[in-house]
Design brief:
The protein is of the alpha/beta class. The chain is built from seven helices and 13 strands.
Length: about 240
């Protein structure tokens, strides 16, 4: 069977204006039987349509904060770095990929961008905006160590993949889904009630997680299963 071509949204160094990619994203895709391809940072609509047709699946990677203007808010003081070029590329790409019903997997910024692109909103900073005592959503290095649990919804694709109601995950984010886009459903939450995984019903594969399975897959079988399910969907 031909290996599926998996398009990865590029990481972008704002200061040096260069594209780059963490090797663990690419290693995880390759280990699951896919060919990772880092996409160009283009805003050309025709090019984005061509890329959407070219690749068999798309991984929306981690990175800077999504611009708050995209969900109707002013930028607050605790919002981090933003990349309007990435926002523009990824929103246009998601629209094309969705239209073609190609497999989508989002990680960290990926779940946030996907939610905003589909009409949802974000907390710009968990410590500043979430009441109570949030758990450690922004852990210190090392990042290949799980730090908190998520509760998995039984009727979700995530439960179908893992066949379990609890999962230990790592966590490196200060923003998170606030209002969930109407086309998405929650697949998992952390103990403090924040959304950790979303999916879109009726799609071949459309899943996004707030944690970083690309740091965990070599040791933790559950994370391998999630990445494998995405790549397998791209093979069909």
């Amino acid at each position: 069977m031909k290996k599926p071509l998996i398009g990865l949204t590029p990481l972008y160094d704002l200061e040096q204006q260069r594209l780059w990619m963490r090797p663990n994203y690419m290693q995880a895709v390759a280990a699951a039987g896919g060919i990772p391809l880092v996409l160009p940072l283009t805003n050309d609509k025709a090019d984005i349509r061509a890329l959407a047709r070219l690749c068999d699946g798309f991984l929306f990677t981690g990175g800077p904060d999504v611009h708050p203007s995209l969900f109707g808010e002013e930028t607050l003081q605790y919002c981090g770095a933003i990349s309007e070029k990435r926002d523009t590329l990824e929103i246009s790409l998601l629209e094309e990929v969705n239209r073609l019903d190609k497999p989508v997997f989002g990680i960290c910024r990926g779940i946030q961008l996907i939610n905003v692109a589909l009409g949802g909103s974000l907390y710009q900073d968990i410590p500043a905006q979430v009441k109570g005592e949030p758990i450690a959503h922004s852990q210190q290095s090392p990042y290949d160590v799980p730090v908190h649990t998520v509760s998995v919804e039984q009727d979700s694709p995530l439960f179908h993949i893992l066949q379990k109601e609890k999962l230990m995950v790592n966590s490196m984010h200060h923003q998170v889904v606030k209002e969930l886009a109407s086309s998405l459903r929650c697949a998992a939450k952390s103990r403090d009630g924040l959304i950790e995984c979303v999916y879109m019903p009726g799609k071949r594969f459309f899943l996004a997680v707030q944690w970083h399975p690309e740091y965990l897959w070599q040791v933790y079988q559950d994370e391998q299963k999630i990445i494998q399910a995405f790549v397998d969907a791209a093979k069909s």
